[in-house]
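Before relying on records like the one below, remember that each one covers exactly one chain. Contacts with other chains, cofactors or solvent are not represented anywhere in the record.
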Amino acid sequence: MSIKALIAVRSGSQRVKNKNLRPFAGSTLLELKILQLKRIHQFDAIVVNSNDDEMLKIASHMGCETVKRNEYYASNEVSMSDVYKNMAENIDCEIIAYINVTNPLIEDETIIKSIETYYKLRAKYDSLNSAHLIKEFLFKDNLPINYDLRHQPRSQDLPDIMALNFAVNILERNTMIENKNVVGVSPYLFCIDEVEATDIDNEIDFAFSEYIFKRKSLLTEKGDCF
């Protein structure tokens, strides 16, 4: 059963300008993610889906399959549901591993373990989606939603609420088309730690991720543990 890694990148990022191609730890987020996925031998291929010719050229030179995305599906107006469906319709495989370039701190071993877990549990769950625990005091409409103000727990004793981080998402291509999402009807939430879950959504995230990435790379070269 064929499985391909799908990288979706576009031009026109709003909060962090040109983040996919902006210098990051001596490279770029796109190139680093491609290099990482090439180390994951479980993948039959890596597919880069983009509206940006420069990104597609980089991907092609690095040995990836490429799909030129229609500008409509790269706009800020289109629903992500329609984007997911369109991307799945334009990839040839049975299983898609949708992996974000904006999660540069996830480890190779974590991705490999997620693939192994997906195959082990796919008879029960129709997708595997990375998530992390949120141990914070949450409010909505000025009221707490995960604890009782009159009996405040310690933060570590708060309920296990999970947040999707989209670092890795694995599901059948047909499921992605039918649901118009990378999350299935019966998802398995694959828990990763908060550092690996870091998603670059603003300038602080970018700076933090680059610092940690460089530090981890330096310690790896020295043979030390992070």
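The two ends are 36 Å apart (CA to CA).
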